[in-house]
Amino acid sequence: MTMSKFLFHDTLTLIKKTNGEQIEGILAQVNNKGILTYDAPFDLDPGDILVRTRPSGTKENYRVLSPGYRPRIGRIQAHYQAKIEMIGALNTESSPSAGNILVSSDNARFNINSTDNSQNTVIHAEPDQELFQNLVIAAEPILDEVIHSKVIDSINEMSQSVSDKKSLAEKYNVFISSAASHMTVFLPFIPALTKLLSGL
User: Fold this and answer.
1) CA-based nearest residue to 3, from 67, 78, 54, 88
2) DSSP strands (E only) in 74-148
3) What is the spatial distance between Cα 106 and Cα 129, in angstroms, rounded to a whole number?
4) Is the confidence at residue 100, as pLDDT, over 70?
5) How far apart are CA 74 and CA 51, in angstroms?
6) Helix/strand number for the chain, H first, E second
7) Where in the chain does DSSP place strands (E)?
8) Are strands 58-66 and 49-53 parallel, antiparallel or unpaired?
9) Fewer CB near the terminus (10 Å): N or C of the chain?
10) What confidence tens digit (pLDDT) does each residue in 1-15 have?
11) What φ, ψ does residue 194 adopt, rounded to 5°?
12) How far apart are CA 107 and CA 104, in angstroms?
């Protein structure tokens, strides 16, 4: 049987763990038991990230623990019943005077423009450059010096290419490749980078 689209109230974006590729517009049901989707012309793998956007603009990030692929049986079409874990939420709305960016991962948890008792880093910059500076801060927990250096270099190259869409796209791909093993750290910033690429 073909499942009605009206049964699926959530629209997700899939971010592949291997290369940062994004697949948008996936119709699904998200609940405390997992994610169900019959909209499955793609491979879902452990470690992939599914992003749901709330009406407020906040992004909910879910890591796939088990894809739970179910092949077609009779009239029941192939689908995924994925087991997931929530790894953080990011409010993408910002203002010049205040805002919070929460970055959570196995390696780091810190706040930018926060008022808690921990050490805070406040950056005053143009929106695009603030994004790149936040990426540099997010890269601080990377302990491997070679990888850290490559990631920082790729971020700097992106920041210098914001006015050239073709060049920025090339630098973005280099960044994704360099940061592949630490992608969880940078996931909250991927939507903003994608928006920057599409907005040029």
Assistant:
1) 78
2) 79-91, 101-104, 109-112
3) 26
4) no
5) 31
6) 5, 9
7) 10-15, 22-31, 34-37, 49-53, 58-66, 69-70, 79-91, 101-104, 109-112
8) antiparallel
9) N
10) 444 444 567 889 999
11) -65, -40
12) 8
Instruction: Give the whole-angstrom CA distance, residue 32 versus residue 156.
Output: 40
pTM above 0.70, yes or no: no
User: pLDDT: is 1 or 115 the higher one?
Assistant: 115
Residue 47: count of CB within 10 angstroms of its CB: 12
Domain boundary assignment for the chain? 5-91, 123-199
What is the C-alpha separation between 50 and 38, in angstroms, rounded?
Answer: 15
8 Å CB contact between 69 and 78: yes
Residues for the chain: how many in total?
A: 200
Tell me the per-residue pLDDT of 15-60, one tens digit each, with 9 for 90 and over: 998 888 889 888 888 877 788 887 777 889 999 999 998 888 888 8
